């Protein structure tokens, strides 16, 4: 899947896959190549990546308590690519919402390895 990047401000680039917005960093006035390469890999396997992140959230989150329905699906809104300070490699974060959890933003941080994409952290923010 080819991604088309558009500049958004002085240090951010964006692309879209349907309703999902991807945010990438800037590298000398152009989209960060390492992040763009990873974004293409994530886009090519988006259903599997989304399912892995959702399953990771389900290890920790009781959706019935969070939103009132155990079968409410996780809604993927955004993917943010970043270079974690002091760590080798590019990580990315998937940002989910859950209908009925007003103002909640659920984030799963993922790291790409040669043969898989693995979640390593989650958080919830109230906005």
SS summary, helix count:
3
- How much helix, percentage-wise, in residues? 25-40%
**N-to-C SSE string, H for helix and E for strand:** EEEEHHHEEEE
Proportion of beta-strand residues: 35-45%
Total strands: 8
Radius of gyration: 15 Å
Largest sheet: 8 strands, mixed
Overall pLDDT: 91
Topology (elements, then pairings):
Elements: E1 6-7, E2 12-17, E3 20-27, E4 30-31, H1 33-44, H2 46-60, H3 63-67, E5 75-82, E6 91-97, E7 104-112, E8 117-126
Parallel strand pairs: 3-5
Antiparallel strand pairs: 1-2, 2-3, 3-4, 5-6, 6-7, 7-8
Would you write up a description of this structure?
The chain is α+β, with helices and mostly antiparallel strands. Strands 1, 2, 3, 4, 5, 6, 7 and 8 form an 8-stranded mixed sheet that branches. A hairpin with a 6-residue loop joins β6 and β7. The longest helix is centred in the middle third of the chain and has 15 residues. The radius of gyration is 15 Å and the shape is globular. 20% of the residues are buried.
Notable features of this structure?
eight-stranded mixed beta sheet; 3 helices; 127 residues; alpha+beta
Task: Explain briefly what this protein structure is.
Helices cover 25% and strands 41% of the residues.
């Amino acid at each position: 899947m080819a991604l088309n990047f558009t500049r958004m401000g002085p240090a951010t680039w964006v692309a879209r896959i349907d309703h999902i917005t991807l945010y990438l960093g800037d590298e000398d006035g152009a989209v960060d190549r390492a992040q763009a390469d990873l974004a293409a890999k994530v886009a090519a396997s988006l259903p599997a990546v989304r399912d892995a992140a959702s399953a990771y959230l389900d290890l920790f989150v009781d959706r019935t308590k969070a939103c009132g329905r155990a079968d409410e699906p996780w809604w993927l809104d955004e993917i943010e690519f970043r270079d974690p300070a002091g760590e080798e490699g590019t990580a990315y974060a998937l940002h989910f919402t859950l209908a009925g959890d007003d103002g909640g933003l659920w984030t799963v941080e993922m790291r790409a390895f040669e043969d898989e994409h693995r979640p390593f952290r989650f958080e919830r923010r109230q906005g």
